[in-house]
Amino acid sequence: MMPGQPIFILKEGSKRESGKNAMQNNINAAKAIADAVKTTLGPRGMDKMLVDSLGDIVITNDGVTILKEMDIEHPAAKMLVEVSKTQDQEVGDGTTTAAVLAGELLRKAEDLLNQNVHPTVIASGYRLAAEKAKQVLDEISIPVTDNDESLLLKIANTALNSKSASTSKQKLGEIAVKAVLQVKQIRDGKPYVDFDDIQLVKKQGGAIDDTQLIHGIIVDKERVHPGMPVVVNNAKIALLNFALEIKKPEFDTSIRIEDPESIMKFKKQEENILKEMVEKIKSVGANVVLTQKGIDDLAMHFLSKEGIYAARRVKKSDIEKLAKAIGGNIVTNIDDLTPSDLGEAEKVEEIKIGEDHLTFVTGCKNPKAVSILIRGGTEHVVDEIERSLVDSLHVVASAIEDGKIVPGGGAAATELALRLREYSAKVGGREQLAIEKFAEALEIIPRTLAENAGLDAIGILINLKKEHAEGKKTYGVDVFKGKPADMVELGVIEPIRVGKQAINSATDAAVMILRIDDVIATKASSGTSPPKKPGEESKSESED
Fold first, then answer.
1. CB atoms < 10 A from the CB of 47, how many?
2. pTM above 0.90, yes or no
3. Where along the chain do its domains lie?
4. DSSP β-ladder status, 309-311 and 288-291
5. How far apart are CA 494 and CA 154, in angstroms?
6. Residues 60, 65, 86, 95: which is the catalytic one?
7. What dotted CATH number matches 15-143+406-442+496-517?
């Protein structure tokens, strides 16, 4: 080997960035993502129109939806998308806040890196600040119970305030609170909400105010025979997981019939079997049948003659929700059906909405599963109302489960910034600088709320800090009057989980990006296949 000859470790075409260049590129990518969603924050935030390669349009100001729809390639930018996704899964709201905070933490870290503060010191300081911030959130939190419906309504309205559905926030907020309280359960002595028990059905047409909560379930199926009743009052409902059909043999069979009489006997036998099934259903007192499987044409005829309402091919998830709502059991064998398996509802009715016929099962006694029928003028409006409702349902559930709320409107962020500055002086060392920068980063929330409302952000931030210094912990940005105000009095409140999760996710993402000093992007050579996973064989190898 000749002296001074370079050694190639990476495959040709691979790209490598290291040191400050790598850090700077990652930070810039994360800042760009934060800036992309920043303008959607708050009641005066704007919407984004996202158009995909097929020309499909999404109009929203929901942070996680925007980031999911954007075709992002940069690895560091993808990490900020994950921050929003985590926030959405854990809390359902605050997705924009989490992304903006993560971007600002990296922007402030940039200043420290330029002063030659080591990334691990910044990471350590940020971790200390995050723990202290969560502790302060607990200290400034306000208790809430599921009996305080007016407070829960304010929480739902706060989530809806920043959405395009804010014009109907009172109606939608009430629906969200009632739905969550209806399906709430107690597990291990604590309240728990399972969102599988809340069914959202979207139907284009009508106005947003036509959205309604159904104390029961909407089944997206119509009655199977026109002779069946359209409305059944005092319904006794049989939920089936078997077909009202003649069961076919599991293996190929052939039947040899030599005279016409045998054909008639054979058909009569089939008819009798179906008739017996319907008579069994009638004998247990059922006047409504909903099955996951099919219903034979002859069985439909017999059911309609008996005045029994029936729907087939009902989704498994809908059958399970129905079982909870009406207090019935799902039966898998006709012989096992008993009167105790039937569920009860005041009314089962077929209603036409738009072009579709739906089955409404309403008036259930103490239903543990409910439906929300979402209406709106266009498909895009209905989709955005659904996203808004999902956010408000999640925040109400989080408040009930945690039993704690904090003031919104940037009030909690401002108080955290003030307390972290006091805390940083006690920590000392270089970590102190990172904690101070963390405090500065938190102020991006009230600043952005003011900027998006077209207000003097610096003036409002100065006045807000003054109010907090005087002990007014609940003061935040009133974007409508353009001055600091008491957020609790205005009803701008959010669950403590929103703030805690935003701090956790943003800190984790910022620390991870800061600790990266080398980015190696490998490129597959032309004509070569991508690397195989361990234990994976190519087709030709396995065939050999």
1. 16
2. no
3. 15-143+406-442+496-517, 220-361
4. parallel
5. 9
6. 95
7. 1.10.560.10
